[in-house]
Sequence to fold (88 residues):
Amino acid sequence: MANHKSALKRVRQNAIRRERNRVARTRIKNVVKQVRGSVSENMTDDVAAQLNQAKSVIAKAAKKGVIHKRTAARKISRLSKLVNSVSA
Fold:
């Protein structure tokens, strides 16, 4: 365990940030799972709205530094490709 005052503060900050990042990552997983589930059930009317929501959640996470911007771009691209393949 840390002994210096600054190190103790760093431990507290890391705990708060870890929890915030965990929530954001879980949110990403859930929206991606939602989109993939709708695609597999052929709900074409719901998929477009869910894709937009997923794009927003992923982009916000990348903007906040939870995930890398290229990881976000890759996730969005793959979801868009999946939705477009079902729509066509």
